[in-house]
Amino acid sequence: MLLPNNIGLDERTLLARQLASYEKKFHVWWRERGPAEFLDQPMRLRRPTGAVSGTDWAEYTMLRPDQYRWGIFHVPTNQDEIAFGEHHGQKVWNEVPHEYRTLLLHHICVQADVENAAIEQSRTLTQMVPSGADQENLFLFFLEEGRHTWAMVHLLLAHFGADGVVEAEALLSRLSGDSRNPRLLDAFNYPTEDWLSHFIWCFLADRVGKYQIQAVTQSAFAPLAKAAKFMMFEEPLHIAFGVVGLERVLSNTAQATLRGGTEDTFNRGAIPFPVIQKYFNYWVPKIYDLFGDDDSERSYDLFRAGIRIPRNFVDSEESVVRIDARVGDGLVTTDVAAEFATNAIMRRQFIAEVQRIIDRWNVSLRALGVDFQLYLPHERFGRAYGPCAGLPIDVSGNVLSPDAGAKHAAYLPTASEFANVRALMQRELVPGRYSSWIAPSATRLATLAQRFNGSPHG
Ligand SMILES: [Fe+2]
Ligand SMILES: [Fe+2]
Question: DSSP H helical segments within 322-380, as ranges?
Answer without folding.
Answer: 342-368
